[in-house]
Design brief:
It is an enzyme of class 6 (ligase). The chain has 8 helices and no strands. It is mainly alpha-helical. The chain is globular, with a radius of gyration of 18 Å.
Length: about 180
């Protein structure tokens, strides 16, 4: 186990945004910008899962779009919202890629939109993984900085939850209150 968690509280979408910002600022030169762009263009894959030689794994294919996952995580950690409210907010934030403001340098081709059915599907997976599957891992996190006002998952800070909790109450709430699309 690591002795310090340098990325504590830094979601993948924020890291991607910061890399885009560093590239656009040009402070490290063109060659470094090219390397950083290749990092952005590389598929994020699951850790410690063996694959076949030709098989490419995709974390997003398994857990859902990082934009929706990080959005849900922020709404839970910062505000403690129930799943139906997160689905409502996610639909208003993501149903039309042409609406709203995007971060500078965010490629137009990568600006997604999601239907209510997609939001519901990925929210169920988020809830199942966040509440039932991953808490035991967070209970043993090494120390790290809190860098976002959106909350942190350290058991010594913002997020305190039992390692053996169930997602059933949140999944039931989705079934009852979030339309299937």
């Amino acid at each position: 186990m690591s002795h310090y968690n340098v990325n504590a509280g830094v979601p993948k979408t924020l890291i991607q945004h910061l890399i885009r910002w560093v590239i656009s600022a040009g402070e490290f030169g063109e060659k470094v910008g090219e390397v950083l762009q290749s990092v952005l263009d590389t598929e994020i894959t699951p850790e410690l899962i063996p694959t076949g030689e030709e098989e490419l794994q995709s974390s997003e294919a398994k857990v859902g779009p990082f934009a929706l996952q990080d959005f849900s995580l922020f709404q839970v950690l910062r505000y403690g919202f129930r799943p139906s409210k997160i689905a409502f907010l996610a639909w208003h934030a993501w149903n039309d890629a042409e609406r709203g403001n995007w971060p500078p340098g965010f490629p137009k081709s990568e600006r997604p939109s999601y239907s209510l059915a997609e939001i519901r599907h990925w929210l169920q997976i988020f809830v199942q993984r966040f509440y039932s599957f991953s808490q035991f891992k967070r209970s043993a996190l090494p120390n790290g900085p809190k860098v976002s006002h959106g909350g942190a998952l350290s058991p010594r800070g913002d997020w305190r939850a039992p390692s053996d909790m169930s997602a059933r109450i949140w999944l039931d709430q989705i079934d009852r209150e979030v339309p299937k699309g």
